[in-house]
Design a protein that fits this description.
Layout (H helix, E strand, L loop, with lengths): L1 H31 L18 H14 L3 H10 L3 H12 L3 E2 H8 L3 H13 L3 E6 L2 E6 L2 H9 L13
Antiparallel strand pairs: 1-3, 2-3
Helix pairs in contact: 4-5, 4-6, 5-6
């Protein structure tokens, strides 16, 4: 009978340790999936979907939403560190010249020009002609929001227009 008590105690100890480990792992998992603001998405209330209904509803959202293939293509352009640095520079200094982008990023003019062409083609930047100079600006609000989320800032004196 003493053996059973020892076995039961060992089982209880292992169960408690396993439960604590699982709880800690679940807590860590939840923290890892929180947004930068400390929020996470969770299903709440009676409208929370489950099972096949949730799968169908999610599929409908994906079908009715934006063109994800196009978005993936656009985002893939940002996977290159040099192009991302260039986009940070254009964000910080709207109207920056290509030669200044090259100096800021430490790249050759030809490399910078090619990268800016790729960013323009993908819809991240737009050009503005000022006499013989071409100046670069962000092309859409998505790029602007992404850059702010990534920690990009503006130079002093550059503000958001209303």
């Amino acid at each position: 009978m003493v053996e059973n008590s020892s076995a039961d105690a060992a089982h209880q100890h292992a169960h408690t340790e396993g439960h604590e480990h699982a709880h800690a792992a679940a807590h860590h998992h939840a923290e890892a999936h929180q947004h930068a603001e400390g929020h996470e998405h969770v299903s709440v209330g009676p409208a929370a979907l489950e099972g096949e209904h949730a799968v169908r509803a999610t599929a409908e959202l994906l079908e009715g939403g934006q063109d994800l293939d196009e978005l993936a293509r656009r985002l893939s352009v940002l996977a290159d560190p040099r192009r991302l640095r260039i986009l940070f520079a254009v964000h910080a200094h709207p109207g920056i010249r290509s030669s200044d982008v090259a100096r800021v990023t430490g790249a050759l003019d030809s490399t910078t020009s090619h990268a800016l062409t790729l960013l323009r083609t993908a819809g991240w930047v737009r050009t503005e002609q000022h006499g013989r100079e071409v100046r670069y600006h962000l092309a859409d609000p998505l790029g602007h929001r992404i850059l702010h989320e990534l920690g990009s800032d503006h130079l002093p004196g550059v503000e958001h227009s209303s």
